[in-house]
Every structure is written in structure tokens, then in C-alpha cells.
User: What shape does this take?
Amino acid sequence: MSLSARVTWRSFQAGAWRMILPGLASLPFGIGFGVAAAQKGLSAFETTLMSFTVMAGTSQMVALDIWAQPLPLVALFVSVFVANLRYFVMGAALQPHLPHLPWWLQPPVWYVTVDQNWAVNIAEYRRGHGDLGKFLGGGFVMACIWSGSTLAGHLAAGGVLSDPTAARRLGLDFVGIAVFVVVATILFRGKRDLTPWAVAIVAALASKWAIGGNWYIVIGGLAGGLFGALRDISQKADGNVR
Amino acid sequence: MSADPENLIAIFVMALAAMAAKGGGFVAMRWLGRHRLVSALLDHAPGAVLVSAAVVPLVQVGGAYWAGAIAAAVLTRTAGGFTPGLFGAVGAVALARWAGL
Assistant: This one.
């Protein structure tokens, strides 16, 4: 097994500890989802099982929207897949750092590929000290917090827990965005990143305005990435790479 | 603890769809990763994904979120790292809301 695919209990714990606060950011959304799931008639067990196995809040919310008897299985598959397309790009960016990952470790790695956990770990892989144990530990703790929060919301449907204003007052609704900003700051390589990031920002805002939904992450990421790639290739062809 | 078999099948289908999206890019890269354009694209994609994910909520919410983003960037650069940036950002948002932003 290659070094990048080694998992130790110590690194698993370290990854779990550092993702507790980002995991807590999902509390208000998780509680809201639990309340909505209870109103749709899902049991506490079904709500928790869905959150633990799917672990993708937005797509779960989209699925609840079309949740009616008889259950439209094809529509559920397509809507969850499309709502999670940003993970396709994230998984693609991760693979070159784990080229020799054994087949049996791949599904757990896919499972823990969620926004904040991916952001923190891809930054470390790019700086040459990524750790699979930390990646898996962080994802596991995020799955537990997410599932627990949806269960809490289900059990307290309509009660005090369904009021997310307390978390908002404490600024906890910003934790998820803060992770993106912090990791982007760490990844920033100076002038080289300025124009691709500007293209990504413009594309993301334009797609949010024109299409709506969560497409802006995929479209902005692809637009910025493609712009940077084409620029680098043309500079290499001209022999201008510094 | 109750579970309807039809609901369990639907949950399984949803989990499968989520894994297909997450694993699809990872698996596809085994074949696509050798191409020059793809590897150059992936050199830039993580940063582009991050700024895209951050900018829309920042623009939508405004005020307090901008204060948090500035605090996150400054503290990450000056205090050096993930934890001060994260806690500083959350504190800045709470302070900004308290101040009425």
C-alpha cells in the first residue's frame, strides 16, 4: 500500500477532531431537514438512515420535495445525482493524489467527499502532506453530526430545536462558508491564480442568476479551471511559463 | 423504530446516486488524468470551486458575511492556519450581527 493510502487510528482521530466545528455548521440545516422529513411522514429511523447513507443535505432536501407515494425512484436517483454533481469535480481533483488507492478503500473515500472535508484535505494533498486517515476521520465525524442533527430535528419537529435563530446569532451559519474562504486563502498562489479565480467568480454569479440552484459551484469551478488550464497550456506552447 | 420497505428502497437509491456522483469523477480520472488539458484543469479546479462556492452566499447575504470572510482571510494569513481563521470568521459574523450589520 502506498504511503498516501495508509490509515492510522491517530490520524483518523486528528481528522475527526478538526472537523467537529465545521460539522456543527450543518446543525441548523440538519434540524430543518429533520423537521421537514417528519412532516413528510418519514420515521426517525428512516430520516437518520437517509442522512447517514446519502450525507448530502441539499440533495436530500430536493428529494423530499418530490417524495410522494408511490415513490418516483428514477426521479429520486436523477435529482440526487444532479444535485451532487459538484462532487464529481471534487472527486476528479482528488484522484491524482490517491492514484494507487486499493479498490476496497475507494467507496469510503467517495463517501467522505463532502464540501468542507474535501476542501481542508485537498489543500493538504496539494501541499504534499495529505493524510487519508484525517480525510476519513473528518468525514466520519461530519456524517455523525449531520445524521444526529436531522434526528434531533425529527424528534423535536415543531419544537424549540426547529428555531435556527440561536445558531444564526452566534454566527454558526457562516462556518461552512468560512471553511471555503480559509482554505482558498491557504491555497492562493498569487498572481497565477488571480484571473482563473476571477473567471470562476463571474461564472458562478452569472449561473446563479441565470439558472439558480447549486449549479454555480460546478459551473464556476469548471470555468475557472478551464480558463487557467488553457492559459497555462498556451503559455507553455509559447515558452513563456515563468 | 419503524421503516417502510418502499422508503428503504428509495433511501438506498438516493445513497447510490450520491455515491455515483462522488465516485464518478474519481473513477473517470483514471483514464482522463493523463491528458494534458485535464491535469492542467485539475491544477486550477480546487481553488476555482472554493471561490465559486463562497462568493454566491457572500453576495446574497452581504454585510455580516463579508466581515466574516475578510476576518477569515486576514487571520489565516497573519495567524497562520485553519483554526484561527475559522474561529475568527465566526466571531466576526457574530459581532457584525450584534452591531446590526
